[in-house]
Design goal:
The protein is of the alpha+beta class. The protein is 16% helix and 42% strand. It has helices spanning 43-55, 118-125, and strands at residues 2-11, 14-19, 30-31, 34-36, 58-71, 77-89, 99-104. Strands 1, 2, 3, 4, 5, 6 and 7 form a seven-stranded mixed β-sheet that branches.
């Protein structure tokens, strides 16, 4: 099972979402920034590393607010650990995505998110998380 740290970056009441490129697996789907937690790596350390690599920011990683498991049709399993990020240093820079956007919570369901994120998107839009 692949274990992933994902960031719920909140600024001015909006969340940062990112769109995969057409060359990545599950092309053009929207997701929250983050990535795989490497063997022996602590989840918060992985979160900081991924945000530096993907967006060029040094994040203060807050609390873990959700943990979900999902099995895709092909059998691949993923465990997602979502962390709140309210503060970061540096200028946000899109280093790997097709697009990045700041979106109000109630607009999140309008985007074509990864299957594994959809339950969380519903909860965020409803104000249950964040």
């Amino acid at each position: 099972m692949k274990i992933v740290a994902a960031a719920l970056i909140v600024q001015d009441g909006k969340l940062l979402i990112c769109q995969r490129t057409k060359y990545q697996s599950m092309p053009l789907k929207w997701e929250f920034p983050g990535g795989k937690i490497e063997n022996g790596e602590q989840p918060r350390d992985a979160m900081r590393r991924e945000l530096e690599e993907e967006l060029g920011i040094s994040a203060h990683v807050g609390e873990e607010v959700a943990r979900l498991r999902h099995t895709y049709r092909g059998g691949n399993q993923v465990e997602l650990r979502f962390f709140l990020i309210y503060n970061y240093a540096g200028e946000l820079e899109n280093r790997i995505f097709r697009d990045v956007r700041w979106v109000e919570r109630h607009h999140l369901p309008e985007y074509d998110f990864l299957e594994a994120d959809r339950e969380l998107i519903t909860d965020i839009a409803a104000g249950k998380i964040v």
